[in-house]
Design goal:
about 375 residues, alpha+beta, 15 helices, single chain, 3 domains
């Protein structure tokens, strides 16, 4: 499990390289290497199955005959087709519990997974956010908003500078019909579609799902920088390329440096709380991110609904706090009302843990309800 993401990324990149080599030399061996790589990537993370659609790009090579295109497509899919046949046989012979997460790929589960939550969020958007006059646009607003979020996450997956260089290289090479570039663009399109399908299903787009797009942008950016070095018509092109490499190097060094103590103080506080609350008694959070790190989905949903309907959540009362075994408080220098309330109520609450950020300006304090321990 520790190497799940890293294994997926490694075999994903290997599959892209193998497919590019296959377009140069469409042999059965290279086709097999591509298929083994992408199937292995899918075994690490199920979203790798999206890239099984990559051989479709072979059918759009109009400079080749249909017979040649279909032959290449078959070479790039013979193991996939064999695996699909075995999978269908296995599904017919085994029950749902025995096939594990593969049951998520059944049409009924896919439709149910997307429709249930999407329709629920659409109702909230229509009735509580847009109101009566615009309620019929709820689904459109959600799908459009999630698509814009996906685009923004894609743009910043590898950094704004890297994306800008990649876009410039794309514009300079828009007339280039190289098979390698077509494969790269196809991988980016599949990544974008995959990200959009994920965010419309779970309404969260974790950074791990943007890594595939980031790799492709880094590849295009590296080609763009190489082109700047080779451009002799513009006297400043090499200086720009050197400046970009310097910025990337500084960023890399900064990312590799150890994080300051207290960098992840919220997450560390919730890990401590989970360890000291083995019976999973009620916990109150005054911030959504604390609930996210603790994985309290019910309270996260309640707080998000309160935000969606544009209501400011009223301050929790002393009587309400008494219902909880632990109270987790995120506090800043400007907002310490709840912390001061609990700190001065020594008869009912005791501060049992406190973690601060690196500059001591923010902290998370965990209070235990003394009454519930009696």
């Amino acid at each position: 499990m520790l190497m799940r993401d890293q294994g997926y990324w490694a075999f994903f990149l290997l599959s892209v390289w193998a497919f590019i080599k296959f377009t140069d030399h469409p042999t059965w061996l290279m086709g097999g290497l591509w298929q083994v790589s992408v199937i292995t990537a899918a075994l690490f993370r199920i979203e790798g199955i999206f890239y099984l659609a990559l051989p479709l790009v072979l059918l759009f090579e109009h400079e080749k005959s249909w017979r040649c295109r279909l032959t290449q497509w078959l070479k790039a899919n013979y193991l996939n087709l064999l695996g699909l046949a075995l999978l269908l046989i296995g599904i017919l012979l085994l029950n749902a519990q025995q096939i594990g997460r593969l049951q998520e790929l059944s049409p009924s589960n896919i439709v149910q997974a997307y429709s249930a939550k999407l329709l629920s969020k659409t109702d909230i958007m229509s009735q509580q956010v847009l109101g009566d006059f615009l309620e019929e646009y709820g689904l459109f607003v959600i799908l459009t908003g999630l698509f814009l979020i996906t685009l923004i996450k894609s743009i910043f997956s590898a950094g704004a500078i890297c994306t800008a260089i990649a876009i410039k290289y794309f514009r300079d090479c828009k007339n280039n019909t190289s098979a390698r570039l077509r494969v790269t663009y196809a991988v980016m399109l599949i990544s974008l579609i995959g990200m959009y399908l994920i965010i419309t299903k779970v309404f969260i787009l974790s950074g791990r799902y943007t890594i595939a797009m980031a790799f492709m942008l880094l590849i295009l950016a590296s080609l763009g920088i190489a082109k700047l070095f080779q451009n002799h018509s513009h006297r400043h092109s090499k200086k720009i390329a050197v400046l970009m490499l310097a910025i990337f190097s500084i960023t890399l060094i900064k990312n590799l440096m150890p994080k300051p103590e207290g960098f992840g103080f919220r997450k560390e506080a919730m890990i401590w709380l989970k360890e000291h609350n083995p019976t999973n008694e009620k916990v109150y959070f005054n911030e959504i991110r604390l609930g996210y790190y603790y994985q309290n989905h019910d309270q996260i949903y309640e707080m998000l609904v309160a935000q969606n309907i544009r209501k400011i959540k009223p301050k929790i009362t002393q009587a309400e706090l008494m219902q909880y075994r632990f109270v987790s408080v995120y506090s800043t220098k400007e907002d310490r009302d709840l912390y001061e309330l609990l700190k001065h109520d020594e008869l009912h609450f005791k501060e049992v843990k406190r973690l601060t950020n690196f500059d001591q300006s923010k902290f998370v304090a965990i209070f235990e309800n003394l009454q519930s321990t009696k």
